[in-house]
């Protein structure tokens, strides 16, 4: 790689669009070492053949970070040994709102790294009647200024050329002399870190706690200098910001000529008065939600079916053509089945993110946040938690990924922690099965179906649970980070369809690769546990049925099921089911349900499949007998009473409502929080809640 | 007078902040002393509020608008 370029800019300036323009699909997402922030890098080639690595740094309004994501920007720019430290910075600003955007430019310029200024959205500023004297601006700043429109692919080549032209030495004219802010402290720091840059020294005073490249001893020494000179970070930051804006006023004087402010926002204003209206605002929001839901369920059903069939086909073809044996079984029933379980989520993920990216791109999402913040903040959430929580009705996995938009760490964690409580689509088959067993298929008042009502109650329970848990966590989780809701409301615009497609692709890819690893591991473990038993139990079962199977005159299908069922009971999973029986008996479950609970960890809907296998014994050999009828007919081997009473059914549904029985979610929480702490806490609290709720329900109802 | 006390459509000029830490964030977002702000709308439940400042629309909670003293 010949040159490293970093993209720096405010949020909503088209930074990601420019990044996609520059790199195309030639990009990857990695991690900044030691920090839980995604690092987007991409590659491009300049006209003179130089290879360029481009790093997309998180959008920020200033070098003083307000969130973890933002703190990356200074860490990368400050540390010359950081693998992402750039040779050239492209600072991208929104030309239609130059002054505020230039604050970041003026801070970055003073760090003394060579840079180019990209004036984006020039098409928009032209329309708004803002004229910018490019040459005058370039002359005053001492850097190349390139007008571009990333959205319309204008000026990108010129920008690349400017990067190629940029010197190894920074040419920008020092913006603000910050020395006056803390002269003694700055000069001592400069000596300590052997730098001649006043602003860098000042930043070190402010932010050294975030800078990992200082040793503990150095940190202590810097701390001492701070204290010796009574360095007050917030006060100095305020003074610096004012000084910078003052300087910018002189720089931008007669550079920006604004012809018509009054007309500019009339379209956005009119839309806002409808979209954030007391009545219409919520009505439209509900309508949009309905469309999204409908799409997630309706549009994904066919592709999901194809994926399931495809994987089923691979498995059956594999069993037909590969040599029979353990390795084949492991590959097909462990790995391929696990992969199928991952891929089947792709349609829902892609559809949900298509909608999210459209809503974000158009600027509507920030209005939803604006409308909902008041309600959500009451229970420790944030206006921005609305999106993940609603997506949770379809699937917690993409929704937890969507929680990344929440800048505040605590709000984001609470959102991630409660999203899996929202009743997702995988619980639906379980609820439907159980409700059909325990709730009579009657109507009350002639129209309201009792079963439908029960289903709705389960959904309401999930929402109430999420709100209560969020409220509890708001009290428990401590953070120093302040919760802000100071947010730009961008003007409405058409979505960029390429971005939408790209987001769908990117999110699906991230899910498959990141969550996939864990899911495959757990699938293999589950497969091993279900396929093997201790000692020679399996051999004994085979021997027991050998003669019956050898009889070719009769249909042996039923015998095969019997063998499979008996093997499952004697497998490690079955033994585990028996083992946990004492613990789940107070909830009204027997060991068979215990096995269901264990296999459900692969995915909740696995409960239905497991029950189908296990109850093939009790229900007799007729294929026409459904799982439901078999389950209804089943009796407890010890007490002789029916297993699925009303109490057991309710207890089981509550257990499924609260328990974290979804390894995909565990995997994605692990990925999003970059550690095991949060997924383990989540697993523990949800299991505890499920157990207690199921216990209370059963003991009261039995 | 505090910014949070303005009604929709009213304007004021920022003169000072009562919270130092919040003032840094607000100034970075363009809310500088001397800058004119106009209240555009309130969210349906009365909070947060949207204001026009420095040529764009900013939303903030009332508790955050409380620290902005206007004239």
Automatic annotation (TrEMBL), chain B:
<dbReference type="InterPro" id="IPR038157">
    <property type="entry name" value="FeoA_core_dom"/>
</dbReference>
<keyword id="KW-0408">Iron</keyword>
<dbReference type="Pfam" id="PF04023">
    <property type="entry name" value="FeoA"/>
</dbReference>
<dbReference type="InterPro" id="IPR052713">
    <property type="entry name" value="FeoA"/>
</dbReference>
<feature type="domain" description="Ferrous iron transporter FeoA-like">
    <location>
        <begin position="1"/>
        <end position="71"/>
    </location>
</feature>
<dbReference type="InterPro" id="IPR007167">
    <property type="entry name" value="Fe-transptr_FeoA-like"/>
</dbReference>
<protein>
    <submittedName>
        <fullName>Ferrous iron transport protein A</fullName>
    </submittedName>
</protein>
<dbReference type="InterPro" id="IPR008988">
    <property type="entry name" value="Transcriptional_repressor_C"/>
</dbReference>
């Amino acid at each position: 790689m010949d040159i490293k370029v970093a993209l720096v800019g405010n949020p909503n300036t088209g930074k990601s669009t420019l990044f996609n323009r520059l790199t195309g699909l030639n990009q990857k997402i990695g991690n900044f070492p030691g920090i839980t922030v995604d690092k987007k890098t991409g590659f491009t080639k300049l006209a003179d053949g130089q290879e360029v690595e481009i790093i997309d740094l998180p959008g920020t309004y200033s070098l003083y970070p307000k969130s973890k994501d933002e703190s990356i920007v200074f860490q990368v720019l400050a540390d010359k040994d950081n693998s992402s430290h750039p040779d050239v910075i492209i600072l991208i600003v929104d030309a239609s709102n130059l002054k505020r955007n230039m604050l970041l430019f003026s801070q970055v310029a003073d760090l003394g790294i060579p840079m180019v200024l990209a004036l984006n959205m020039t098409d928009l500023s032209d329309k708004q009647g803002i004229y910018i004297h490019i040459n005058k601006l370039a002359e005053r700043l001492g850097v190349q200024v390139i007008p571009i429109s990333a959205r319309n692919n204008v000026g990108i080549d010129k920008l690349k050329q400017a990067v190629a032209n940029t010197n190894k030495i920074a040419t920008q004219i020092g913006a603000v002399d910050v020395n006056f802010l803390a002269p003694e402290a700055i000069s001592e720091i400069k000596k300590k870190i052997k730098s001649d840059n006043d602003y860098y020294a000042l930043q070190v005073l402010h932010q050294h706690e975030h800078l990992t490249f200082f040793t503990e001893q150095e940190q202590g020494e810097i701390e001492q200098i701070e204290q010796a000179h009574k360095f007050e970070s917030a006060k100095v930051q305020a003074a610096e910001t004012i000084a910078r804006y003052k300087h910018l006023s002189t720089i931008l004087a007669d550079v920006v000529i604004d012809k018509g402010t009054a007309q500019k926002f009339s379209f956005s204003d009119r839309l806002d008065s409808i979209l954030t209206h007391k009545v219409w605002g919520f009505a439209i929001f509900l309508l949009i939600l309905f469309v999204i839901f409908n799409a997630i369920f309706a549009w994904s059903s066919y592709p999901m079916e194809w994926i399931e069939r495809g994987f089923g086909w691979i498995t059956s073809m594999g069993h037909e053509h590969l040599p029979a044996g353990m390795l084949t079984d492991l590959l097909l029933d462990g790995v391929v089945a696990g992969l199928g379980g991952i891929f089947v989520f792709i349609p829902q993920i892609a559809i949900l993110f298509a909608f999210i990216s459209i809503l974000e791109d158009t600027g509507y999402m920030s209005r939803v946040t604006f409308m909902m913040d008041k309600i959500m903040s009451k229970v420790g959430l944030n206006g921005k938690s609305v999106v993940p929580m609603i997506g949770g009705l379809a699937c917690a996995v993409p929704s937890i990924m969507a929680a990344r938009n929440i800048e505040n760490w605590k709000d984001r964690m609470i959102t991630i922690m409660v999203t899996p409580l929202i009743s997702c689509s995988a619980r639906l088959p379980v609820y439907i099965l159980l409700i059909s067993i325990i709730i009579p298929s009657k109507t009350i008042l002639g129209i309201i179906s009792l079963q439908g009502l029960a289903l709705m109650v389960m959904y309401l329970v999930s929402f109430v649970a999420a709100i209560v848990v969020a409220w509890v966590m708001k009290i428990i989780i401590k953070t120093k980070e302040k919760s802000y809701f100071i947010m730009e409301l961008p003007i409405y615009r058409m979505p960029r369809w390429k971005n939408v497609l790209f987001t769908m692709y990117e999110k699906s890819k991230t899910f498959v690769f990141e969550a996939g690893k864990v899911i495959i591991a757990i699938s293999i473990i589950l497969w091993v546990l279900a396929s093997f038993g201790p000692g020679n139990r399996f051999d004994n079962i085979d021997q027991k049925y050998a003669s019956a199977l050898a009889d070719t005159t009769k249909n042996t299908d039923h015998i095969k099921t019997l063998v499979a069922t008996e093997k499952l009971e004697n497998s490690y999973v079955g033994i585990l089911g028996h083992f946990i029986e004492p613990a789940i008996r107070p909830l009204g479950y027997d060991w068979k349900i215990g096995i269901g609970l264990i296999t459900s960890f692969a995915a909740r809907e696995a409960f239905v499949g497991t029950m189908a296998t296990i109850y093939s014994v009790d229900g007799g050999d007729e294929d026409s007998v459904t799982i439901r009828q078999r389950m209804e007919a089943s009796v407890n081997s010890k007490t002789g009473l029916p297993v699925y009473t009303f109490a057991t059914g309710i207890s089981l549904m509550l257990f499924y409502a609260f328990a974290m029985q979804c390894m995909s979610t565990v995997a994605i929480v692990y990925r999003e929080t970059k550690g095991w702490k949060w997924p383990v806490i989540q697993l523990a609290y949800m299991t505890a809640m499920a157990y207690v709720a199921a216990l209370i329900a059963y003991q009261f109802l039995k | 007078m505090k910014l949070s006390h303005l009604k929709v459509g009213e304007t004021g000029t920022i003169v000072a902040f009562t919270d130092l830490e919040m003032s840094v964030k607000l100034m970075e977002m363009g809310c500088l002393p001397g800058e004119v702000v106009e209240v555009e709308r309130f969210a349906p439940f009365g909070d947060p509020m949207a204001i026009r400042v420095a040529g764009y629309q900013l939303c903030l909670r009332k508790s955050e608008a409380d620290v902005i003293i206007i004239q």
